[in-house]
Amino acid sequence: MCSVRKQYANSNYLAVATWFWAAVTAFAAATVGVGPSFKGPCGLVLYSVRDEMVHNPTGALDTVGKLGFHFVELGGTRELSPATPEAQREFIAQLDVRNLRAVSCHFTFERLRDDIDGVIRDAQNLGVDYVCCAGISHQGKFDEKACREGIDMFNRAGEALAKRHLTLCYHPHGFEFEPSGSGTLFDKLMAETNPKFVSYEMDVFWIHFAGQDPVQLLKKYPQRWKLMHLKDMKKGDTPPKIDLHSSVALGSGQLDMPALLRAAKREGVKYYFIEDESPDVFQQLPLSLAYLEQLKW
Fold it and tell me: Beta 183-184 vs 179-180: how paired, if at all?
């Protein structure tokens, strides 16, 4: 009888311990970069550590985990090369042991257009919820013909992805804001892509680079922006004269982060990812997190 009670106590202890560590993990995931006003969830674009992911991927992922991140966005690093199911599962296993979860992954316009089944396979192997694309193929200046091709392709790919419980997000880079009618070609993209199948990812740096106001775009298209890249532009740098050093720690640059984050929360952004393209990324990431954690509005 005593051994039975002991066995029960041990199993009960394990259940409580499992619950406790799950709660701690969930709390940590919810609180990194989170403060009095900004509530996240906040992750990291792994492209920020692209060089380290080539030369020392284990060390890069260790550092990302030690910084406290639990959500990452993939694309442009090593998770799609080699693009075999075994390699992708091994990559995700490396994320798992560091309590990192891949939420989204970027794919090229061409792959979405020509190999949607392969994109679905890779997205499912990687366990992501969002499939992102950061450009539309075009020659020279972006024009109405290229825009139309993008609209048609995104609607088609988005519908195919939705059937597999994946959400397509287009990430504008600034070239989409060519004038068109009473607005821009980006307005045309928004108007003619089906909200059921096509959402958007705002990179606030590139929206600012294009001379647009991120806050006003969030307000203009509520509930269309599901993801956001958080980054800041060095004070005094003026597009198009920018370089990698133009990417600075959040709160130290030109963008009005409090106004931007207030609007993002109100208009339905689901995940925020810090993206730092600076050579000083490992020095700047702690500063960006500290800024978000003390931010008040």
Answer: antiparallel
Residue 167, SS3? strand
The answer to whether residues 211 and 240 touch, using CB atoms and an 8 Å cutoff, is no
| DSSP conformational letter for 37 | S
Q: Confirm whether pTM is higher than 0.90.
A: no
H-helix or E-strand spanning residue 121: helix 116-126
Helices and strands: H and E segment counts in the chain = 12, 12
Q: Considering only CA atoms, which of 74, 88, 77, 75 is closest in space to residue 43?
A: 74
CA geometry: angle 144, 168, 171, nearest 5 deg: 55
What distance in Å separates the CA atoms of residue 115 and residue 45, rounded to the nearest whole number?
A: 24
pLDDT digits (tens, 9 = 90+) for 226-275: 999 999 999 999 888 899 999 999 999 999 999 999 999 999 999 999 99
Token pair listed for 248: 């600075």
Q: What is the pLDDT of residues 43-76, one digit of tens each?
A: 999 999 999 998 999 999 999 999 999 999 998 7
17 has pLDDT over 50: no
Torsion over CA: 185, 188, 193, 199 (sign) = positive
Quickly count: other Cβ atoms within 10 Å of residue 49's Cβ. 23
Residues 158-173 have pLDDT tens digits of: 999 999 999 999 999 9
Task: Name the CATH code of domain 32-294 (choices 3.40.190.290, 3.20.20.150, 3.40.50.200, 3.30.1120.10).
Answer: 3.20.20.150
Rounded to the nearest 5 percent, the helix, strand and coil shares of the chain are 50, 15, 35
